[in-house]
Amino acid sequence: GVEMCLLLGATGVGKTLLLKRLQNLSLRDHHSDVGEPRPGQHRVGTNLTDLMLHKRKLTVRELGGCMGPIWSSYYRDCSSVIFMIDAANTCQVSASCVQLLSVLSAEPLQNAAVLILFNKLDLPCPMSLVEMKSLFRLDDIITCASQPITVQEVSARSGRGLQDVLQWLESHRPSC
Ligand SMILES: Nc1nc2c(ncn2[C@@H]2O[C@H](COP(=O)(O)OP(=O)(O)OP(=O)(O)O)[C@@H](O)[C@H]2O)c(=O)[nH]1
Ligand SMILES: [Mg+2]
């Protein structure tokens, strides 16, 4: 069926803003109505957004942090996962780390490509990204995980890094 990417992350990390920005960017790339929000943004517990990539359509499904207990019911249909972290919210980091580990160990996601985004880099971060990554034991996680994992720093607000996110989506075609 439709190619699906899951967008996961704790409450308020910036998932919805990221999707809006990516949608505008991908529309601009295809020279259609710039700035016009497209129809088809449903709000039925999860938020579905269609992105037009080169020669294909990708649907991104946002699942909010408070839906954590049912995230796994959506794992079957997806080929890639974006896991978002608010780099300016250190109180959330350890909880996010636990969630990330459970995502990576989920059986249906063993072949999914994973992109970890540290968002809100426009804000003054109470912790350096190096500290965040070591708190997350990110290097260990990446070494032990069966999935290919990419880590990226972005700002959904300023737009920093978002073209790279599109490129990542572009280059990761379904393998499961
Ligand atoms: N400064 C800054 N604010 C951001 C950034 N990304 C998102 N925000 C803000 O953070 C708040 C939450 O953003 P949302 O996109 O609604 O977060 P979400 O992850 O969809 O949250 P839930 O759907 O509740 O889980 C909003 O006020 C955004 O404008 C960013 O990169 N920088
Ligand atoms: Mg949201």
From TrEMBL:
SMART domains for the chain: ARF
A Pfam entry, by short name: Arf
Keywords on record: GTP-binding, Magnesium, Metal-binding, Nucleotide-binding
A molecular-function term among this protein's GO annotations: GTPase activity
UniProt keyword Magnesium, yes or no: yes
Highest taxon of source: Eukaryota
Residues that bind GTP: G9, A10, T11, G12, V13, G14, K15, T16, G65, N119, K120, L121, D122
InterPro entries: P-loop_NTPase, Small_GTPase_ARF/SAR
Binding site for Mg(2+): T16
CDD domains, per database record: Arf_Arl
Protein name: ARF like GTPase 16
Species this chain originates from: Lepisosteus oculatus (Spotted gar)
